[in-house]
Design a protein that fits this description.
The chain is an alpha/beta fold and 181 residues long. It has a single domain, classed as Rossmann fold. Helix content is 25%, strand content 34%. The chain has four helices and nine strands, in the order H-E-E-H-E-H-E-E-E-E-H-E-E. The chain has helices spanning 7-15, 40-56, 75-82, 137-148; strands at 18-21, 29-32, 63-67, 86-91, 99-106, 109-116, 125-133, 152-161, 174-180.
């Protein structure tokens, strides 16, 4: 971001993100963005932070991509603020039409993401949005997937970053996070 986010809004946002130990499996501390939407002040703070962030990118990107599913809460809004298209990146088998697909490795197994082939054009500059970066796997895979379409990922944006997992170091594009845990 070219301007520093409002620290009061960031504090309000962080204070309203609930943490759930041992979810979805033992040893994981799950950070829940949905709890923000249950508090009107926190939700408005998030809205304001998203708008400020989006406006800082004016003229720098042509299309917003967001990763299933929580990225869909923020990507369309950022696209609307900027007056540019929004395109979803989804799990295998969820998108109609011709899709570009990428299978990628996880700690234990593999996953697959898809984007509609006409979702991005060669030479477009893109932003990828998600709610959280942990190990960086889905953001890295999304960058690789868009590269197959000839789309340049200018930046990746997340609400929360689990900084001790160093996920941003795996991502081949710049990563911006509002909150670090």
């Amino acid at each position: 971001m070219t301007t520093a986010p409002n620290s009061e809004e960031l504090k309000l946002l962080k204070d309203h993100i609930e943490s759930f130990p041992d979810f979805p499996s033992p040893g994981i501390l799950f950070r829940d963005i949905f709890s923000v939407f249950r508090n009107q002040s926190a939700s408005q703070a998030l809205h304001s932070l998203l708008k400020s962030y989006a406006l800082s990118l004016k003229g720098q990107i042509d299309v917003v991509f967001a990763i299933e599913s929580r990225g869909f809460l923020f990507g369309p809004y950022i696209g609307q603020v900027l007056g540019i298209p929004f395109v979803p990146i989804r799990k295998k088998g969820k998108l109609p039409g011709v899709v570009e697909r990428l299978e990628y490795g996880l700690e234990y197994g593999t996953d697959c993401i898809e984007v509609q082939e006409d979702g991005g054009k060669v030479g477009q500059k893109a932003l990828i949005v998600d709610d959280l970066i942990a190990t960086g796997g889905s953001l890295t895979a999304s960058c690789q997937l868009l590269k197959t379409l000839g789309v340049e990922v200018v930046e990746c944006f997340v609400i929360m970053e689990l900084a001790d997992l160093n996920g941003r170091q795996k991502v081949p594009s710049k990563v911006v996070s509002l909150l670090q845990f």
